Amino acid sequence: MNRTSLRQLAAPLGLVLAAILCWFAAGAIADRMVQQELAAALRAQRQVTSSIVDNMAEVIASDLALSRAIPSTMAELDAVQDVLTAVRQYTPDDGKSDAGRLAQLAGVPALAAINRFLHDAQGFSGLDAIWLINVNGLCVASSNATGAHPYIGKDMRTRPYFVSTRLGAFTEGYGVGRQSGDPGIFIAAPVYDEGMLVGAVVARMSLSRLRHWVAHPGSFVTDQNGVIIMANDNRLEGRTLPNAAALTMNPGERVNMYLRDRFPPLEIRSLSADMRAEEPWVPTAAAAQLFDMPRHRTPALYESRGGLNSGLSAHLVDPIATWPELHRSHGRDRLLVFLTLVGTVTLTWVITVSWTRELRHHRATRDLAEQLQAANALLAAEARHDALTGALSRRYFLDLLRHEIDRARASGTPLCMAIADLDHFKQINDCYGHAAGDHALEHFVDTCRAELRGTDAVGRLGGEEFGIVLPSTRLGEGIEVMERLRKRFKGSQPAKLPEDVELAVSIGITEYAPDDPPERLISRADIALYAAKSAGRDRTEARAPDDTSPSPRTAANASWQA
Q1: Quick one: which of 140, 144, 126, 204 has its CA closest to 172?
Q2: Are strands 457-462 and 505-511 parallel, antiparallel or unpaired?
Q3: pLDDT exceeds 80 at position 251
């Protein structure tokens, strides 16, 4: 081969080598550019995802704290302690059938009064069922005693919540009702009489009441064994997290708790290894943050929060919103930089592309910051006010109550707290529809705004139950205010409701005593409310902080002791 031929061959070889070098250089530049966008997108979306999961955890903890107060309060009532002591001789090992034990227990007068008490307590507490179990594991009373399938007479010894409570522990966790088949949160409080364990108060709250926990797409809640009990995508319910405790349980234990033996796994896997093979431009630190789940076409962030005092955990799998655009940008950028490098206007193209990319980077960062600010504002508004009535949310109302108690304690000023419950609210929903019930709730809050002072506060505790705080108010003044509120609500008829709807409200009120914690103040107002309900509804009942007379709940159930 002569020298001329070598020169002719060297030119195209040089061009090919230069093109190869430009291609690799363009790839490195494109990687760096898209990595900056990815880092900014991950930072912004991580803040939004964390805020959503934190809000889920706070709502779950708040709802469970209010629900566990009911069985805990009942376990302290003399009537409950005495009746469990009186029926401790009954046992599931008596040779009788469930029906036989039901008939036997139905003949005990003391239990008839307790059954009515449990039925009334369920009605105003928002729980789905409440029942009493004696120390031998036999259900002796229940709120559904007059229903088609009462729990009375059932052997509860193997129920997980009773096994723990029998050892003296307060139990709270997920389970599936064996008789109803409905999933729910079971709360069991041990009952002692003169230092001896005599049984347990058990309450169930159906998951259907708690769907607001998983309102955000990609969110789900797991129980103490890693089983998904509730999810925004209900197809995920019943699956288990990787290495879940439920997988190590024996089949009998799983059936006892979940009424099923098999649990398909939820495939939440890290994309770190896949990204190194398929998307090498993604940095190792960023790839370690990305996860994949079935039916998700894009990588996602995964956040969870545990430690909610019930074994429950809040989870969120949040797909990266900007991932498709980032993926397309990477290939487009590489080709663009390559053409810039091999062109005669390399410097001009590099400056133009860099300026364009930086401008888009800042715009994307600003847009994500604005989205984060809007999301935080929306979360704050949802956490503070009830969406239907505009009253304070339960969580914010409880925070406000603690603040007012601290202020009253520091300044020595009086403070009243009331709990109001709309009478026969279920009948309004059943007869006129839930829209009418919603209008009734809105009308009550409107009446409160019209009747109360600007310094007073009203919050929705759940369902048709509202809490009212009256700062700088003595008990006598508070009773007068509540009576005016009650009469005004009953005497007004909003245009949105049918004319034959009868509105009424029962109110229980009490006054803050020095060193009263919020739970004691709420419990005293709750007992006063129960007294108003038991006395015929449509009235206001008060309970003084130094009142040593039997509570309305105890008095209502004392007839069988005489």
Answers
A1: 204
A2: unpaired
A3: yes
CB atoms within 10 A of CB 159: 25
CA angle 484, 487, 491 (to 5 degrees): 135
d(CA 32, CA 355): 15
Listed in sequence order, the residues at least 6 apart from 193 whose beta carbon sits closer than 8 Å to its beta carbon are: 81, 82, 84, 85
Q: What is the pLDDT of residue 559?
A: 30
Give dist(CA 337, CA 560) in Å, integer.
89
Helices (H), 305-393: 323-342, 346-384
- Measured between alpha carbons, how far is residue 550 from residues 79, 177, 376 in Å? 11, 35, 48
Distance CA 308, CA 61 (A): 6
The amino acid that residue 482 corresponds to is: M
Q: Which fold has domain 36-321?
A: Beta-Lactamase (3.30.450)
How do residues 366-404 score in pLDDT, each as one tens digit?
777 666 675 555 555 556 888 899 999 999 999 999 999
What are the tens digits of pLDDT across the range 504-556?
Answer: 999 999 999 988 899 999 999 999 999 999 999 999 999 998 764 444 444 43
Residue 57 to residue 307: CA distance in whole angstroms: 9
Give how far the C-alpha of residue 277 lies from the chain's centroid of Cα atoms, to the nearest Å: 40
Q: How far apart are CA 393 and CA 408, in angstroms?
A: 22
Reference 414, options 476, 479, 471; nearest CA is: 471
% of the chain beyond a pLDDT of 90: 36
Cα–Cα distances (Å) from 489 to 451, 485, 504, in that order, read 10, 6, 7
Q: What letter represents residue 65's amino acid? A: A
Name the packing angle between helices 434-451 and 475-491 (round to 10°): 130
Is the per-residue pLDDT at 309 higher than 90?
no
- CATH fold for the domain made of 394-561: Alpha-Beta Plaits (3.30.70)
CB 502 within 8 A of CB 444: no
The answer to whether residue 144 scores a pLDDT higher than 80 is yes
Place of tokens 């663009």: 336
β-pair type (505-511, 540-543): parallel
Reply yes or no on whether the pLDDT at 330 is more than 70. yes
Would the CATH topology of 36-321 be identical to that of 394-561? no
Q: What are the extents of the domains in the chain?
A: 36-321, 394-561
Q: pLDDT per residue over 455-503, tens digit each? A: 999 999 999 999 999 999 999 999 999 999 999 999 888 888 888 888 9
Separation of CA 553 from chain center: 29
